[in-house]
Structures are given as structure tokens and as C-alpha cells.
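Write out the 3D structure for:
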Amino acid sequence: MEALLLLKKIRIENANAIAGLTWGFPAISGFLGFCHALQRKLNNKGYDDLKLGGCGIICHQHQPQAYQPSPYGDYHFALTRNPLTKEAKTPSFNEEGRMHLTVSLLIEVDDIGLLDEPETEQLQQAIQQIVLSQRLAGGTVLKLEQAELYPDAESFNQPRERRQLLKQLLPGFALVSRQDALAQHQQQSGLSPLDAWLDFASLTMRAEAINEEDEPASDSQTPDKDAHHKANWQWQARPYGGWLKPIAIGYQRISPLYQPGELAKSRDPNTPAAFVESVYSIGQWLSPHRIQDISQLLWHYHSDEDNGLYICKNAYQAPEPVSEEA
């Protein structure tokens, strides 16, 4: 990593809020795909060797377009009504969850070369123009507060410089991987991977019986088999503390890899394609000031052709819990 690119406070409208079985935030692949598209457009503008790598995601504000009909009911997406057909009937459509959000992206840059101050300013302006013309996670980019390039990424290994950079990302929360928490919970509980993941994804309640005072019963009174017992319903805490949430991190191949031209109606007839299913894990929303290494913020593509895995990985390492001395 030679340099860092900070896209500060990108305001996005109508981004995709559904990621596989999860909803509430776009998939990680949507942000990495945005960086890949940005790199290709910069290469076409004359920055031939420039490469954009991992991407850190910091959310400042989010507003899912959903509503809750009742206090204990499920949320429903606020959908738009499509125009009527020629027969004056309502056409069928797929449910699309949308959301508005404001995020900052911290992107690693390689092969940037030596740039003087005017060239750096020119590159930042080019990035600003391209970002405002792109889509991010299916949404429209309305505003970009600032695109700033830091040529010396090694300087952020120093605590003072790192704090100054991360301070710009406040208030906000960074999304990092907690696959370790999922693996540990599965090992301790003995559950299957799916059931262990659902413990983080579901909201559960438990009934606690209310102890009523015993009343003196007459000889003529008999127990009522249909009597209802009062109970208090309490929310059950999820495993571990912190803002741990289920996330979609990529795809698992479920079919052979078809060569170009073999799969009908493929989006890109010149690229091999396959049928896939989503892969899920656990992520954590973490305040950026707790990060001790910038690289722990970044998500990267990872592919395993032998096992058919195409996922996004993050190198965050949770600190060891401090043991209390007797």
C-alpha cells in the first residue's frame, strides 16, 4: 500500500438495502465493486498503472425506506406503485429494499508514482468528478464532501498521524469482520453453522413466570385446568457484546464454471460464469478511533477456485479480553 484515498461523506440515495437474507445495509461487494469501477475509469483517463485495492467502510448516517405497522410487527419496505399495464392491471414486480445513507470510504492505492502538488490536486479533482457520475451499491451519489489523497501511507503507522486521519471519520462507525466470534460461538454452543449464525440474526424473547401469592382455597374449590398463568416476556441478549450483525460477504459456486458463450443470456458473454449462492458471516460496527492499524479497516476480494468461493475478507483482530486479577 503506497497511498490512501479518502472519499469523505458520500451521500447516496436509494441504495440497495437487501443483501441475500439480510437487510439494512448494502453488501460488502457493492463497495468493492465501486472501487473497481473507479479504478477502471481512472485508467482510461491516463492513470494507466494506478491500482485501487482494499476498501474501508465507515457509515455516518443511514435511513432504510421501511416502516413498522405495529410495535411488535415486522418491518415492511416502502415500495412504489408501478404504472398499470395496457389492460389496466397492476404489473408484478420484485420487492426492492432501498435506503439513503452517508458513508466514507478509505481506499488503498498502489502504483501511483511520484506526483507533485499540482498533479495530486488534478487527480483529486478527476476522482471527484468520476465518483459523482457513478452509482454505489445501486444508489445514486448525490454529494461527495471531499476526495483527499495521502501519498505516504506508511506515515499512518505512527499513532499521532493515525489519530488525525481517523478523527475525520467521526461521528461514524466502521464495519469490520467478526468471523472469529461466529466460530467461537459455534464451538461453544455445539450448533450447526446456520443455527449459530441465526443466534446473531434473530430477536428472541423468553417468558418468565410471575410468582403470585398463595390464596387460601376453600374445600369446594378445585384447580382450574384452563387457568392462565401470568408471565413477563423478556428480550434475550445476543451472543457477545457490541454491535454484532449478520452480513453477506460474497458467493459460493453451486454449479460448474461455464466457459464464455456456454451460458445463455449471460451479462458478459466474454467472461466465464457460474450459478452462486450468498455466503454469510458476522460483522461488527466499531468506532474508528478504536482501530490500531489502518489495514484492519480494509476489505479485500478473495477467491478460492478449488472450493468455488468468491468472498470479501477483512483482517480485523479483536483485542484480547483483559482478565481480572483477584
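The domain at 3-68+96-174 is CATH 3.30.70 (Alpha-Beta Plaits).
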